[in-house]
């Protein structure tokens, strides 16, 4: 049984700590920063490098085990496992790249990269599930903030890579192997389940607004400093000063619990006491009318868990101890197996797969795409994609939350709109017109970010929060699956073929990725059609959940 922390301040402390862990969970976005060193020092070809990119995405997104573990154990256990994963995985990569240990086989490095980036799944699952349960009435906003910071992590790491590590790939891997686990160990105490706020509180919206503004300021800051460091040669003192300012901006969300400490809100205390009273009265009303019989005694805490045998359940139903449980309706809490037989589950998975699977193909090959079009320093491209990814994640959460409360508009509408834009973006990439690379990268970053922020609250609203960890992580498999099909098998193969025609290991010119972009445009066209179908199907669910302009927890939902 996980202890629940009471009070109005702990959820905000947890959210502030979660911001740091979301930045840490973006360690997989660093692959473009050290992939060129893997290719040059270890002698890999493009297809081998692309398959390492697939390992990077598989590790980052295969979170079924973290999803199961987070329902059985407290958050600190999940974070501890992620810390060990990060340490051992990146440690092996550092040993190989630094030539401390030579001639490690390719398969070992592939597995090490999977293990290393799988720490992202452990970190992000913990903070996302815990904070969405702590703020169940603001799911879109919380998902947007946390996923936004996760998207911004690439730019933060790029700043660290440039200012602190002086563009050294081996130092970056050592930093990931030691620094990220240390950060997780420092923050794990603050990530804990708290008493959720189930009443309307005007101060809560202002607090969320403050965090959103702070994240925007951070995003603009890291993008600006990255460009400055690329254009100008800054000395060490200036670089360190810029880095310290970035760290201060990352601490901004913690200003909310500090403010609540010095200026406590009486309304917040009243809200907590009201929730407690409601919970007590609810518990009293749920007392069984019949005296438990022998078989019903075996049920234990039926309302709190699923650890019950089918035989005991059938006996209890026959004796009248419990009513026969009906299947959940959309909007209520589903078990994973119950969700998997729903058409909406697979439609959401496919729409997400087409959107992020195509987007991650560009992200994994962003350095090679830039070089093919004559841009050899791809740090600005990566930072631009990261910042726009952050804008898409944060903006997607804010906009979808606004319209879902205003008109009960299903969040998947925004997946539809952004996939239409992605079609245009891929055609723009394929054209390779002068000056369009940066614009196309920015557009793709925004659309890619919206896919993440939209899928997360949609999954929780359709299938509930009780088993949200495993359902969300299954949806996330769309990312590595897309990376394997579109990046590993498609983009890498076509790139190497074109490079062979040029009798070079490095492909130059628009033909290196043109066919890949045209295929990705077709993929997003199919995703758009499926997204429209899904939106039409789930519209009645949103009209039920958001009737009256605010989220209503279904009667059978228990978190």
From TrEMBL:
Residues forming the Nodulin-like domain are 11-258
Indicate how the chain sits in the lipid bilayer.
Answer: Multi-pass membrane protein
Q: Where in the cell is it found?
A: Membrane
Alphabetic keyword roster: Membrane, Transmembrane, Transmembrane helix
Matching InterPro entries, A to Z? MFS_trans_sf, NFD4_C, Nodulin-like
Annotated signal sequence range:
none
CDD domains hit by this protein: MFS_Mch1p_like
Q: Where is the chain membrane-spanning?
A: 12-31, 76-95, 107-129, 172-191, 206-224, 236-256, 345-367, 379-403, 423-450, 470-495, 515-536
Annotated Gene Ontology cellular components are: membrane
> Residue limits of the NFD4 C-terminal domain?
342-542
The record's section on Gene3D superfamilies has: MFS general substrate transporter like domains
What single Pfam family name could you report for this chain, choosing any that match? Nodulin-like
Family membership noted in the UniProt record: Belongs to the major facilitator superfamily. Phosphate:H(+) symporter (TC 2.A.1.9) family.
- The protein in question is named Nodulin-like domain-containing protein
Lineage, highest ranks first: Eukaryota, Viridiplantae, Streptophyta, Embryophyta, Tracheophyta
